[in-house]
Amino acid sequence: MKPVVVVTGAGGLIGQYLVRTAPRWAPDWEVRGLTRRDLELTQVPAVETMWETLNPHAVIHCAALSRTKDCEQDPGAARLANVLVTTHLSTLSRDVPFIFLSSGEVFDGRRGWYEEADEAVPINVYGRTKLEAERIVLGNPKHSVVRIVLTAGTSAAGDRSFVEDMCRAARAGKDVRLYADEFRCPLPAGAIARAVWDLLGAGRPGLYHLGGSDRLSRWEIGEKLLPYYPVLSGRLIRGSGRDHVGAPRPADLSLCCDKIQTLLSFRLPGFAQWLERRGSDGDPWDYPAS
Ligand SMILES: NC(=O)c1ccc[n+]([C@@H]2O[C@H](COP(=O)([O-])OP(=O)(O)OC[C@H]3O[C@@H](n4cnc5c(N)ncnc54)[C@H](OP(=O)(O)O)[C@@H]3O)[C@@H](O)[C@H]2O)c1
């Protein structure tokens, strides 16, 4: 019998890729993906019963209130989903590896190319809840935190990744404003899934940064996507984060990923390089088998 790994948030963007790619990248594990329909994670007794039933040998925790805007609008819901649920699951999983997906939004974004040892100073509710949860998770030496930033991918609902958001807006006849002074290091969901499986296999818990190898502005990202997504043509508008209204946004969340790179079975790609090499069949954001 294979050991069981539970993936929470299995109906979300990254959870879907983890479940789908497990036979390729984690064949020694039996994966039990939990969507919200399977289990509402705020229901404490139901969660405890599920953990007793599944008795997982490892947990990858992707469920979250993941949109900055939603967190800013309802800080109580953000804390419940991102801190209290995470605390509960990590406590139930105290004796096994537990990988918590966190975010570069724990940083203020003033500097960029952040390393794991850099001081985290969040500037929005989402980042604050993620940092609070990280500290609890890392209190257990068996547990890990993986900070990611901007994920390209294709979801079942078609409304999860930033590429999907852009294309949906363009299809609805809306302009897509992209800040030329906001920097990220995007990574395809397939690469994130493969890296997380590698990390679980490596058995080296701790805090890790996981992002693409190039730092691009939002505007540059849009320009690079344009040849592959004609629907965006004529819809991209160059903007500035200085004019942003809403939840505060860190300007530069590029991440230094040297630490996780040493554990990985593949080289973390840059976004532009990924787009050039992507296959014409299947999901462009999946990691190629070879
Ligand atoms: N995607 C990114 O660019 C990015 C960047 C930085 C960090 N992250 C982090 O990476 C993780 C995965 O991100 P993602 O993009 O896959 O997020 P996502 O698409 O929003 O998926 C999160 C999933 O969690 C589920 N969920 C939330 N609260 C729940 C609850 N109380 N009970 C059961 N299920 C619940 C959601 O269900 P519903 O759909 O029903 O709400 C959703 O399916 C998150 O922790 C996120 O904060 C993602």
Give a description of the structure:
- Pathway: Carbohydrate biosynthesis; dTDP-L-rhamnose biosynthesis.
- This protein is α/β, with parallel strands linked by helices and 290 residues long.
- It has helices at residues 13-25, 44-54, 68-73, 75-92, 125-137, 162-171, 189-202, 218-225, 258-261, 271-277; strands spanning 4-8, 30-34, 58-61, 98-103, 143-148, 151-152, 176-179, 183-184, 187-188, 207-209, 216-217, 236-239.
- The longest helix has 18 residues, at 75-92.
- It starts with a strand and ends in a 13-residue tail after the last helix.
- The chain has a domain at 4-153 and 186-215 and 251-272: NAD(P)-binding Rossmann-like Domain (Rossmann fold).
- It is 36% helix and 16% strand.
- The protein has a six-stranded parallel β-sheet with strand order 2-1-3-4-5-10, sandwiched between helices. A two-stranded parallel sheet has the order 6-9. A two-stranded parallel sheet has the order 7-12.
- Bound molecules: NADP nicotinamide-adenine-dinucleotide phosphate.
- The site of NADP nicotinamide-adenine-dinucleotide phosphate has 23 residues, from α1, α4 and β4.
N to C succession of SSEs: EHEHEHHEHEEHEEEHEEHEHH
Strand content: 15-25%
Total strand segments: 12
Distance between the termini: 28 Å
Apparent shape = globular
Q: Which residue ranges are poorly predicted, with pLDDT under 50 across at least 5 consecutive positions?
A: none
The whole-number mean of residue pLDDT values reads: 96
Question: Which class best fits the helix and strand makeup?
Answer: alpha/beta
CATH class of the domain at 4-153 and 186-215 and 251-272: Alpha Beta
Percent helix range: 25-40%
CATH architecture of the domain at 4-153 and 186-215 and 251-272: 3-Layer(aba) Sandwich
What is the CATH third-level topology name of the domain at 4-153 and 186-215 and 251-272? Answer: Rossmann fold
What gyration radius follows from the Cα positions, in whole Å? 18 Å
User: How many helices?
Assistant: 10
Q: Mind summarizing the main beta sheet? A: 6 strands, parallel
